[in-house]
Amino acid sequence: MKRTVEMISPSIILLLLVSLPALALGAELNVEKLKYPKLNEIVMPEVQEITLPNGMTVMLVEDHELPLVKMKALIRAGTVYEPTGMAGLTEMFGEAWRTGGTASWTGDEIDEILESIGATIEGGIGEGSATLSANTMTESFDQVLDIFREILMTPVFSEDKVDLARTRLSSIVSRRNDEPMSILMREYRKLIYGPASPYARQYEYEGLNKLAREDMLEFHGRYFHPNAVILGVWGDFKTSDMKKKLEQSFAEWNSADIDYPEVAEVDLTLRPSVNYAEKKDIEQCFVLTGHLCMRLDDPDYPEFYVMSEILGGGWTSRIFKKVRTELGLAYGAGGGLMSRYDYPGPFYTFCSTKFASTHQAISAMLDEVKRIRETEVTDAELALAKESYLNSFAFNFDSVGKILSRLMTYRYHGYPPDFLQKTRAAIENVTKQDVLRVARERLHPDKLVILAVGDAERFDKPLSSFGAVTTLDISIPEPGEAVPEPTEASAEKGDEIMQKALAAMGGAERVLSLNSISSVLTASMSTPAGDMTIDMTLVLVYPDRFRLDMQTPMGAVVQTLDGDSGWMSTPQGVMALQGSQAAELKKMVRFELFSVLKAFVRGEAEIQYLGDTQLDGHDVFELLVSLGDDASSRMFVDKKDYTIVGNSRRANTMEGPAEITEILSDFRDVEGLKVSFASAQRAGDKEVSSSSISEFKINPEVDLSIFAKPE
Description:
This protein is α+β, with helices and mostly antiparallel strands. It has 20 helices and 25 strands.
């Protein structure tokens, strides 16, 4: 389950979507002249709060407008309570909690029941709390409550759903460097909170593979007790009836003493730094600057909020006007304050700009941060920032569910129930003097953390002009291989077997003379969309150029690698390969059979004998092939004639990371090389594809322009 925390303000996301049409209207609309009517008074629903005998807090609101009842449980159990060394536990818990079933129903049975009555139950877990929500027709409430209660009290986390959750989370790990915004927000949290902080912790393949069903059950048993729950129920019911129903339903769930681990306080010491994460397969640089600031209940929050809105809160803000409108450096630019209920959030500025204007855009943002500390803002700026908040205020009260959910959150974090109303009143009273004071006292342009994601070789000026630069390592660690420690004997035997395999496949001289290959083949594949047969043409120029042309049921698809980068063409257009896609394709080319043999001849591959085993009816030697940089695969050599009949390595599939084993067959002599004309690929124990070659050429003439990305 994704953590429910965002680093970029919704106003910035909206800004990116509406900036162009808004600018188009700018000639006709002067937003500073807009007048807003006085707000209507907010009418709050009556909330009945009770405590059940077992300690559960219940908040009830009757609402008979529609024949619906909704529930939401807020449980004090989140990522902040993950045991040391178990990063990813709560994410996996959240994925398998609802789907993993209960003592009475499997997850699939629950799906069928809920679908038949038009109801929903959803569970999740975030940094500081877990939530379980339900939505049902009034007539089906009792049935849904039974299921809701068991998911809350007695989930079983079935093994198949835990494994499915692990696969999904592993897939997220494999793709986490694909999007620059994902890199930017993830790495920025590490910089301002520290990588070990529960507010920035990151899970990896290795940790996910170690987590088990028993860990989910232990976490549930430790923290899921009624005295740790706030339950909100709203909709079509009588309060007196609902009280009795809930008391009876949860009567057997007993309270417990919960030993919560201490959550370390956020260190508010500001440590300025300049940081860079390399991502060359994009066309813009993405930048965040800022520093840790305050919680929502900080006395200076109203004043700082107004100041941050003037500085970067929308397309009338100073940063947007300067960076986008005046200088034309970015489609989106701005900033804001991301305060939290229970820990300090950051003040930040943000922009995405072409590489050639990176330094200029960062400088422009920093200048605006400094300028707002020098003189008072204008009356118009102050009025617009306050009115934009006040006129969106009513949307906090446009549904009973929103109101009750917010009151539950306030109760959970120890905030007063009228906290939002008090904040509104405080914002109404903010003055220009308040804005200047808080900017000078709480905004620190000399202590900013700066992070840029992009290609530094294409920046207009080096980032080092802002200070010493730290280059961040955003590589994704592969899980450790469970293999014996290499010994002199295993290395010697591995080398001996590989020498015989090299001779069987064509010999060192013939392998080194191989510069390129091409083949025409037909593949049968199992995909999430069903089985399909695809005609393909493959071209490989050693060591790192690859092109695959495919005729699929959806149309022609081309996938290309040209060194470290690549591109793909589909019926929808041409696009650069994401970082993980290019890395996976490069890895595949690197471990292609003849690529490995060439590396072995050149002394660039280390071989270790792992033992004797069987592969698809063959008695084989199993070898570990290491190519440096922690890159390795297993190779299987037939014990009879030393033909290489298979290989295995970890790869990313459409269903997530898996161990892919390729089984080679139908060997034929092609100009002195032993070539497999048929193969089958397995992910674990499941066959995912097979292919047969109809034409194979050695050292064909290749026009290298076929690897270049089309305009």
